[in-house]
């Protein structure tokens, strides 16, 4: 059949998880898609992430599930330590995350991004090293001015630019209004695996402080996390890497176990990632011809372990919603059909109540008693209903 109308055009800001997934589905629905990413290339590497429940159906429909299964990390053991480094319990990690062994996949973040990009890169225009400087919706489309100097007009624009989204700021103003701080800050970085860890994680806790080492394979690097409770957000530290290192060093100054070595490694790390643990809660996910997806719209925080899954499901639902509708009806359908799933997953954690990071001595003792009671013999997990609480509509690709 010959096409009688021109293809609708879409610009997506952000090429991580939500961005390439949305690009894939919009392209399948006949859009001409451009993705702009401020980094110079895909950002690879990174911490392990889970793809679970409904999100598994998304990657299966994209044809990348076999590749993700090949990249599966297969974490076999999670060992909890007390303040002196003594073992509290060693458990099957799936039982705690609510994951389902044999079904869920856990991969390095970079492996997921790469698989998504590979699935779409030949059909979609990618602009690296650039970003949106201005959005103007006063005409018949969205007039976009790029920082690189180009100006172009698109039928729709999508913000898939993460927790600190610029696109969201263009639409709705500063992040503080929509940011729900969960009472923790964390630093993540890679360091040498001098611990002999393999396919396992070790978590050290004292009240309000946690240090974790995560070995994704048998290789010579581990992912290190230092997480701590803090009632107020340390705004100064967000803008200043030196202040971040100083704050983390101060909080963990008297900590035992391997923490002194982790602090030394943090000082030398070139991939230090520091942030508040927080969610984004927005009353609306779109304005005019511009919509948000993934962390930009509804970051659930890593405490839920559902950020990537929400990004994948959200991208699928958004593309399906505009496939046969204009932006107004399409964006309304996206929210109507996706919001309950998102909220249910965001509600899996509240302020300061993360089971992995108890903030008081009493809460930590209770958590440890619970773990000891399990004696390592965890029952097979049934999975959390929240992960699968949405059934995807059928695809109707052009
Ligand atoms: C330590 C840690 C552990 C985590 N563990 C898990 C887990 O186990 N399971 C899970 O599901 N999730 C986990 N997450 C969360 C998960 O990483 C995010 O929820 C997920 O990456 C969201 O994807 P996204 O594409 O929406 O945003 P992001 O991955 O944040 O990507 C945003 C992209 O936009 C780009 N960008 C930013 N600003 C601009 C701009 N102005 N113009 C153009 N491009 C821009 C960025 O460079 C980036 O490529 C974890 C997160 C962290 C930090």
Automatic annotation (TrEMBL):
It comes from the Bacteria. One of its GO terms (molecular function) is FAD binding. Residues 379-398 are annotated as: Disordered. Residues 10-342 form the FAD-binding domain. This is FAD-dependent oxidoreductase. The lineage of its organism: Bacteria, Bacillati, Actinomycetota, Actinomycetes, Kitasatosporales.
């Amino acid at each position: 059949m010959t096409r009688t109308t021109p293809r609708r055009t879409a610009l997506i800001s952000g090429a991580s998880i939500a961005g390439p997934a949305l690009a894939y589905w919009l392209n399948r629905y006949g859009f001409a898609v451009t993705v702009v990413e401020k980094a110079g290339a895909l950002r690879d590497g990174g911490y392990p992430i889970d793809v679970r429940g409904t999100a598994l159906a998304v990657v299966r429909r994209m044809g990348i599930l076999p590749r993700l299964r090949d990249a599966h990390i297969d974490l076999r053991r999670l060992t909890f330590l007390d303040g002196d480094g003594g073992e509290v319990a060693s458990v099957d990690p799936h039982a705690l995350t609510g994951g389902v062994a044999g079904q869920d996949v856990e991969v390095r973040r970079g492996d997921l991004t790469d698989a998504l990009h590979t699935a779409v890169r030949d059909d979609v225009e990618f602009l690296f090293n650039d970003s949106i400087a201005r959005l103007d919706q006063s005409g018949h489309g969205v007039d976009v001015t790029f920082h690189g100097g180009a100006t172009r007009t698109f039928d729709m624009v999508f913000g898939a630019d993460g927790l600190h989204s610029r696109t969201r700021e263009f639409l709705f103003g500063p992040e503080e209004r929509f940011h729900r701080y969960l009472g923790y800050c964390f630093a993540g970085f890679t360091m040498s695996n001098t611990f002999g860890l393999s396919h396992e994680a070790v978590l050290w806790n004292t009240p309000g402080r946690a240090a974790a080492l995560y070995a994704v394979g048998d290789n010579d690097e581990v992912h290190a996390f230092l997480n701590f409770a803090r009632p107020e957000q340390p705004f100064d530290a967000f803008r200043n890497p030196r202040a971040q290192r100083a704050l983390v060093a101060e909080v963990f100054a008297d900590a035992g176990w391997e923490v002194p070595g982790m602090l030394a490694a943090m000082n030398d790390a070139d991939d230090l990632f520091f942030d508040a643990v927080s969610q984004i809660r927005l009353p609306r996910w779109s304005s005019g011809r511009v919509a948000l997806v993934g962390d930009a719209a509804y970051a659930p925080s890593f405490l839920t372990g559902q950020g990537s899954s929400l990004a994948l499901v959200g991208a699928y639902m958004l593309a399906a919603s505009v496939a046969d509708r204009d932006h107004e009806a399409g964006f309304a359908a996206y929210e109507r059909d996706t919001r309950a799933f998102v909220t249910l997953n965001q509600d899996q954690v509240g302020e300061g109540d993360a089971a992995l990071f108890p903030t008081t001595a009493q809460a930590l003792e209770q958590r440890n008693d619970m773990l000891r009671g399990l004696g390592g013999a965890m029952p097979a997990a049934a999975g959390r209903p929240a992960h699968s609480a949405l059934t995807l509509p059928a695809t109707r690709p052009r």
